[in-house]
Amino acid sequence: MTSFAPDSIVLNRKLPLWYQVSQSLRASILGRSQEDPLRLPTEEQLAGHYGVSVLTMRQALKELEDEGLITRHRRRGTFIEPSAQRGAPVRLLGSVDAIVAQQSGMTTELLGHGKAPVSAELAEYFPELDEVATYHRLRSDEKTGEPTNHARNYVRPELAERIDLEDLARWPMTKVLRDVVGMRIGRITDTVEARLADPETARLLEVPLLSPILHYTGVARDESGQVLDVAVIQYRGDRFSFTVTLDA
Questions:
Q1: Using CA atoms, how far apart are residues 35 and 97, in angstroms rounded to an integer?
Q2: How many CB atoms lie under 10 A from the CB of residue 49?
Q3: CA–CA gap between residue 221 and residue 213 (Å, rounded)
């Protein structure tokens, strides 16, 4: 049986090699034809194809496995999931400092905080917890006072004991967890989608009901992969856009 043939790429040494390889493979998988075989070449073959080490290749494959695009079987090999289709979320590489800088020039009002049961939407992130700490904040433009977004953060209870509310009025939760609480953040996964403003969002952001907004979900994990914080933010659609810059 003929094995799957991924596209070739020129690697950029400014970005992690595993990330570039995983994104290239991901594009090849989602862009394959129905006639292409489901079995991938071996780790060694793929590493040779991309000119990287086997360890780097394994890290790239683990990324695709975590996303559900491939399955790996000992002695049998690595296979593309037949259900893998176009339309899976695009993953972008950034930094915590970029997230912090994005929220500069804003004032923050703490609308509420406390504890809440783990909802069905949060269960996949906190499977072992019954409740999480919650923080609800409204951000406004520093110059005009116009509301720009409102955010809800869902944080592990043991971390909440070390969070100062005054810090949340100055900084994003990500910076508080990293620089104040002292957590080592390994990865943040961002998802952005278009939605319509519900009654609460319309009231807080001072926009018409059902007007377009950007719905953002950010999942922060430590270096072991454990979820520390889930941020759900509603941005005004007339004040924000989603821009991606790629280094070619």
A1: 44
A2: 18
A3: 26
Residue 226 three-state SS: coil
Strand partners, 70: 80
- Give me 3's structure tokens: 């094995």
Give the mean pLDDT of the chain: 85
With the C-alpha atoms ordered 80, 84, 86, 90, is the resulting torsion angle positive or negative?
negative
Sign of CA dihedral 153, 155, 157, 160: negative
Whats the size of the chain, residue-wise? 248
Q: Which residue has the tokens 């406004």?
A: 140
Residues 6+ apart with CB under 8 A from 239: 146, 148
Confidence of residue 240 (pLDDT cuts 50, 70, 90): confident
Q: What is the DSSP letter of 39?
A: B
Residues with Cβ within 8 Å of 187's Cβ and at least 6 positions away in sequence, in order, are 220, 221, 225
Query: Running DSSP on this structure, what letter comes out for residue 3?
Result: P
Count each helix (H run) and each strand (E run) in the chain, helices first.
8, 8
pLDDT, tens digit, for every residue of 163-196? 999 999 888 999 999 999 999 999 888 888 888 8
Question: Which domains, and CATH codes, for the chain?
Answer: 17-80 (1.10.10.10), 90-243 (3.40.1410.10)
Interval 131-167: pLDDT, tens:
999 999 999 988 888 999 999 999 999 999 999 999 9
